[in-house]
Amino acid sequence: MKKYILRFLKEEEGAELIQFAIVVGIAALLAGAVLLVFQAAGDQMHRAAELVDDMEYATITPTWGGGGGGTGSPPP
Questions:
Q1: How far apart are CA 17 and CA 10, in angstroms?
Q2: What are the Cα distances from residue 5, in Å, to 9, 15, 22, 42, 50?
Q3: At what angle do helices 12-54 and 2-10 cross, to 10 degrees?
Q4: Could you tell me the residue range of the domain that residue 44 belongs to?
Q5: How many domains does the chain fold into?
Q6: Does 42 fall in a domain?
Q7: I want to staple 8 with a disulfide (CB 3.0 to 4.6 A). Which of 14, 23, 32, 42 is the partner?
Q8: In this predicted model, what pLDDT tens digit does every residue of 6-15 receive, in sequence order?
Q9: Which of these, 54, 73, 52, 53, lies nearest to 63 by C-alpha position?
Q10: What is the pTM of this model?
């Protein structure tokens, strides 16, 4: 068996096959990494959209004066 493995590694076809397998493996790893990045970005966009949808616009009542005894009316 060892003889066949050594012959396989010495032949050019075997070397080309190994190189091809390495390239395919690297491409698969890169594709997986890209998918994870896009999935994470999509999750963040979904969270942001939910936050915007859940926002409640509070009614803010302005207060003028602040010195006590004021009428509470806006300054001229």
A1: 12
A2: 6, 12, 18, 46, 58
A3: 80
A4: 20-53
A5: 1
A6: yes
A7: 14
A8: 776 677 667 7
A9: 73
A10: 0.49
CA–CA gap between residue 31 and residue 37 (Å, rounded)? 10
pLDDT digits (tens, 9 = 90+) for 60-69: 566 665 555 5
Q: Tell me whether residue 47 is in a domain.
A: yes
Check if the beta carbon of residue 75 is closer than 8 Å to that of residue 64.
yes
Q: What is the 3-state secondary structure (H, E, C) of the chain?
A: CHHHHHHHHHCHHHHHHHHHHHHHHHHHHHHHHHHHHHHHHHHHHHHHHHHHHHCCCCCCCCCCCCCCCCCCCCCC
CA distance 27 to 21: 10
